[in-house]
C-alpha cells in the first residue's frame, strides 16, 4: 500500500474509533510518539491506552494534505482539518516505511482550545455547577484578576451549596454570605469565576460523579481527574480558571493535583478558615488550593493563612523507602530521579531514613478510615437515612461503614491516631520535609472497572493518610512522569510550617522552574 492510501486508511480507522486499526497504523515500538498540546505519549502501549480511554476522537474533515519526503523511507504528512464546531487544526505525522509497510513513528495534533461550554453553549456540567463570573475582581490586591473556581462545598452568597448531589441541592438554602475562605480570596482581589463540581458529599477520590459526569483531564486524556475536588482541578487544568479553592480530607486536593499535573496545597489542620464550609469529617477537613503556577499558589495561600512570621525554612529532606515502596515501580523510579534533581537544585541534603511510619501504617490507616467514616455518618447520616438510594453505591457504602462504627471502636481508633500524630511530630521537626509520591500511580482510565479504581484509591490513601491523620501541611508538585502521565511529588512538613513548605516548592531553583 502506498503512503497516501495508508494515510486515508488511518483516517478511516480514526473516524470509526477502530482501535485495532489505529494500533496497526502506529509503529509498534517503545519510542513511538504522539503529542497534543503539552502532553506527550511515548511508546505504542501508552498511545493505545490513551485511545482506549478517550472514547473516540471528535469528528473532523480533512481539507488538505501536504507531503514532504526528507529521506528515503521517511515521509512527513501534514493534514489541515476542520471539526464540526468550526474549529480548525493541524495533524502532522512522520511515517516510516518498514518491512510491513508504512507506519506512523511520530504524530502531533495541534491543540484546539477547548470551549468552556458543551455543544449547545451550556457550561460543561461535569466541571461547573454554576458558571460565572459570579463576583468580579476588585482589580486591587495580590490576587487581582485571578480567576477562581470554588468547590461546591463552600458557601457563596446568593447561591446554594450542591455538594455534588441533585437531591442535596434541591433542599439547600440560599446562602446569605460567603464562606470565610471565599471572602478572603475575594478581599485579595480574586474573581469568583464559578462554582465547580465535587464528588458526592466529597466522599471519594475518583472525580466520577454519576449525576453530572466525569470531567475531562487534559493532562492525561482518557483518564479521570481524581477527586473529590474534580471540578476545580479540571477547571484549572483546562485553563478555565487560574486558581481552585478546594478541600482535602483524605487527599482530595493532592490526588487531583497529581493526576492533572497541578500544584496542590493541603494546609495544616486549622490553619485556614472553615466557616461556611460543608463538612465531611471535621477532624480532617481543611480548605486549600490548586494552581498551575506555584508562585500563584504561594501568593494565594498567604491570603488564607493566619498572619504570622514565616517559619524556619526547609533545610533537610528525608525519604522513607518503605513508604515509597507503596507506589508503583515506575512511580518509584521517577520519584527517585525527581528527588535527586530537587535537592541538587535547592542545595539541600537528602537523607534516606526509616521514619517508623511504615511499621505502623496499616494500624494508622485503619484507624483513620474508622474515624473518618464515623464522623462522615455523624455529619450526614440523618439526611442519607431520609433519602435512600440517592448516592452512588461506592459513596453510600463508605457512609454505611461509618454507621456501623461503635462508640468503643471509634474511641480506640482515636487513641491510635493520637499516638500516630505524636510519632509523626517526632520525626518531622520544623525545617524538615518528608518527600513522598503524591499518589500510588498515574490517573486510572476513565472506563476502568470500579474494582480497579477502588484498588488504586486504597493504595493511594495509604500515602495520603499520613498528612490527614496528623493534621500536617502537604504540598504537591507535578515533578514525576510515568508513561508520559503526570504524578505529583508531595512534601510533608511539620505542623504550622505551611509557609516554609510552600517557599520550598516555589523556590526558583526548583526543577519545575528550570
What would you note in describing this structure?
With 514 residues, the protein is an alpha/beta fold. The protein has helices spanning 3-16, 19-25, 44-54, 166-171, 180-187, 230-237, 254-260, 294-304, 321-324, 329-346, 357-386, 393-403, 407-427, 450-470, 498-506; strands spanning 33-36, 39-42, 60-71, 74-83, 88-98, 101-109, 128-135, 147-151, 191-196, 243-248, 263-266, 286-291, 316-319, 350-352, 432-437, 474-482, 485-492. A hairpin with a 2-residue loop joins strand 3 (60-71) and strand 4. Helix 8 runs antiparallel to helix 15. The two termini are 46 Å apart. The model is unreliable at 508-514 (pLDDT under 50).
Principal-axis shape: globular
Percent range for helical residues? Answer: 25-40%
User: What composes the largest sheet?
Assistant: 11 strands, mixed
Kindly provide the radius of gyration, computed on alpha-carbon positions and rounded to a whole number of angstroms: 24 Å
The residue-averaged pLDDT reads: 91
Lateral strand order in the biggest sheet: 7-9-8-10-12-11-16-17-15-13-14
Question: Would you identify the regions where 5 or more consecutive residues have pLDDT less than 50?
Answer: 508-514
**Overall number of strands:** 17
Amino acid at each position: 500500500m502506498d503512503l497516501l492510501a495508508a494515510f486515508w486508511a488511518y483516517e478511516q480507522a480514526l473516524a470509526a474509533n477502530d482501535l485495532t486499526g489505529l494500533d496497526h497504523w502506529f509503529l509498534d515500538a517503545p519510542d513511538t510518539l504522539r503529542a497534543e498540546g503539552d502532553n506527550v505519549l511515548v511508546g505504542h502501549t501508552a498511545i493505545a491506552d490513551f485511545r482506549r480511554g478517550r472514547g473516540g476522537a471528535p469528528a473532523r474533515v480533512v481539507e488538505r494534505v501536504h507531503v514532504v519526503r526528507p529521506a528515503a523511507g521517511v515521509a512527513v504528512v501534514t493534514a489541515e482539518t476542520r471539526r464540526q464546531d468550526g474549529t480548525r487544526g493541524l495533524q502532522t505525522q512522520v511515517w516510516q516505511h518498514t518491512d510491513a509497510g508504512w507506519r506512523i513513528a511520530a504524530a502531533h495534533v495541534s491543540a484546539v482550545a477547548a470551549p468552556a461550554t458543551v455543544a449547545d453553549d451550556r457550561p460543561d456540567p461535569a466541571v461547573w455547577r454554576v458558571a460565572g463570573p459570579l463576583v468580579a475582581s476588585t482589580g486591587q490586591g495580590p490576587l487581582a484578576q485571578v480567576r477562581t473556581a470554588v468547590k461546591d462545598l463552600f458557601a457563596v452568597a446568593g447561591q446554594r451549596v450542591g455538594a455534588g448531589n441533585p437531591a442535596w441541592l434541591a433542599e439547600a438554602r440560599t446562602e446569605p454570605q460567603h464562606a470565610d475562605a471565599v471572602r478572603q480570596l475575594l478581599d485579595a482581589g480574586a474573581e469568583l469565576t464559578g462554582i465547580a463540581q465535587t464528588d458526592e458529599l466529597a466522599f471519594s477520590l475518583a472525580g466520577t460523579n454519576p449525576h453530572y459526569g466525569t470531567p475531562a483531564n487534559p493532562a492525561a486524556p482518557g483518564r479521570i481527574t481524581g477527586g473529590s475536588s474534580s471540578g476545580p482541578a479540571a477547571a484549572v487544568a483546562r485553563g478555565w480558571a487560574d486558581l481552585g479553592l478546594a478541600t482535602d480530607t483524605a487527599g482530595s486536593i493532592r490526588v487531583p493535583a497529581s493526576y492533572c499535573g497541578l500544584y496542590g496545597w493541603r494546609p495544616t489542620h486549622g490553619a485556614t478558615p472553615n466557616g461556611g464550609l460543608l463538612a465531611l469529617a471535621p477532624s480532617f477537613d481543611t480548605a486549600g488550593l490548586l494552581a498551575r503556577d506555584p508562585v500563584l499558589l504561594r501568593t494565594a495561600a498567604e491570603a488564607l493563612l493566619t498572619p504570622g512570621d514565616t517559619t524556619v525554612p526547609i533545610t533537610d529532606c528525608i525519604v522513607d523507602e518503605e513508604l515509597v515502596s507503596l507506589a508503583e515501580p515506575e512511580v518509584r523510579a521517577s520519584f527517585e530521579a525527581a528527588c535527586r534533581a530537587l535537592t541538587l537544585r535547592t542545595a539541600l541534603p537528602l537523607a534516606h531514613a526509616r521514619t517508623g511510619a511504615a511499621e505502623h501504617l496499616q494500624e494508622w490507616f485503619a484507624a483513620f478510615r474508622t474515624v473518618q467514616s464515623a464522623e462522615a455518618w455523624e455529619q450526614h447520616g440523618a439526611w442519607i437515612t431520609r433519602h435512600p438510594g440517592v448516592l452512588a453505591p461506592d459513596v453510600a457504602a463508605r457512609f454505611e461503614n461509618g454507621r456501623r462504627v461503635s462508640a468503643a471502636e471509634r474511641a480506640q481508633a482515636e487513641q491510635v491516631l493520637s499516638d500516630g500524630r505524636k510519632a509523626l511530630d517526632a520525626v518531622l521537626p520544623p525545617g524538615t520535609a518528608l518527600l513522598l509520591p503524591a499518589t500510588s500511580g498515574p490517573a486510572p482510565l476513565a472506563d476502568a472497572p470500579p474494582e480497579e479504581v477502588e484498588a488504586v484509591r486504597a493504595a493511594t490513601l495509604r500515602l495520603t493518610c499520613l498528612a490527614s491523620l496528623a493534621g500536617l501541611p502537604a504540598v504537591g508538585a507535578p515533578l514525576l512522569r510515568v508513561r508520559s502521565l503526570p504524578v505529583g511529588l508531595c512534601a510533608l512538613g511539620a505542623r504550622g510550617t505551611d509557609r516554609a513548605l510552600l517557599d520550598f516548592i516555589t523556590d526558583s531553583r526548583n526543577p519545575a522552574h528550570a
